[in-house]
Amino acid sequence: MTKTILVVDDSASIRQMVAYTFQTEGYVVIEAADGIEGLAQANAHDNIDLVLSDQNMPNMDGLTLVNTLRGHPKYGSTPILMLTTEGSDSMKMRGKEAGANGWLVKPFNPDRLLEVVKKLLN
């Protein structure tokens, strides 16, 4: 069965690179430009298997998105991976406390991203 990934990032080029990485492996990708749009996409689809989000975005940041999704019955246990320039231990801890399952720092290695996503989906 094909897995669907919601990619939330305010950078169109990052979304494009991440989408390409996933699509070449057979994943379906839904894109959103910020946390509010990501939340709208999450509410509009019933089949999202994993959420990948940036932290620093306008309108709603990634940790707020994670907190909001974790409060939704549909996304209480959906894997959420942060892909961001934020690499401090304190920020990673905040992500873990919010409910993120993993944290990768940009720039990303496509092979490493796929490896982490496959682990989270299995």
Written account of the structure:
Helix content is 43%, strand content 19%. With 122 residues, the chain is an alpha/beta fold. The longest helix is centred in the N-terminal third of the chain and has 12 residues, at 12-23. Helix 2 (35-44) packs parallel to helix 3 (62-70). The two termini are 12 Å apart. The protein contains 5 helices and 5 strands, in the order E-H-E-H-E-H-E-H-E-H. Helix 1 (12-23) links the parallel strand 1 and strand 2. The radius of gyration is 13 Å and the shape is globular. It has a single domain, classed as Response regulator (Rossmann fold).
Shape: globular
| Structure annotation, total helices | 5
Q: What is the third-level CATH name, the topology?
A: Rossmann fold
Structural class, from secondary structure content? alpha/beta
Report the span from N to C terminus: 12 Å
Spatial order of strands in the largest sheet: 2-1-3-4-5
CATH superfamily: Response regulator
SS strand fraction: 15-25%
As a percent range, the share of helical residues equals 40-55%
Question: What number is the mean pLDDT?
Answer: 95
For this structure, what is the CATH class?
A: Alpha Beta
Number of domains: 1
Give the H and E element order. EHEHEHEHEH
